[in-house]
């Protein structure tokens, strides 16, 4: 499916399983089905070729920040709402609000052949603001309780200058061990620049 959001200067396209994506009154909603996820175990286990999760992605140009408040209908461990970026078949990253495993937690995954997995900090409630930024081949992840003051989570490179510049970014829902969950995204915002400071709360 294709979806145009008035907040974004690029169109979104659905990837993976059907996420039943909808957008109404400024709120984007998606559904993850049972045991849907994108993760390549670093222990060397073979990736299940059927492993996937609903994604809604587009291709912004140049430097950018993609911001959304993410709310997750937590039902099982590792249910999550995600801001996602995709550079290649085994080169992608996730910034998640995840039940990990008992508390809502900001988590990140960067996949370069295999995935890493890191918890940043727990949050109160089922909502958090997430932000992905890009300049050149560098990406930054931030999270916030109020959408005003941002906590630095991670900076990394992914792919080369050309592939990073053509990265797909957007939204994903996952329920790796559960029976599914619903995720909503509101206060969606696009900024055509890199943050002024990564660690100063801006």
UniProtKB/TrEMBL annotation:
Could you identify this protein by its name? Answer: DUF1349 domain-containing protein
- Database matches in Gene3D superfamilies: 2.60.120.200
Q: Which PANTHER family match?
A: REGULATION OF ENOLASE PROTEIN 1
Q: Which domain of life is it from?
A: Bacteria
The cross-references to Pfam families, in alphabetical order and at most eight, read: DUF1349
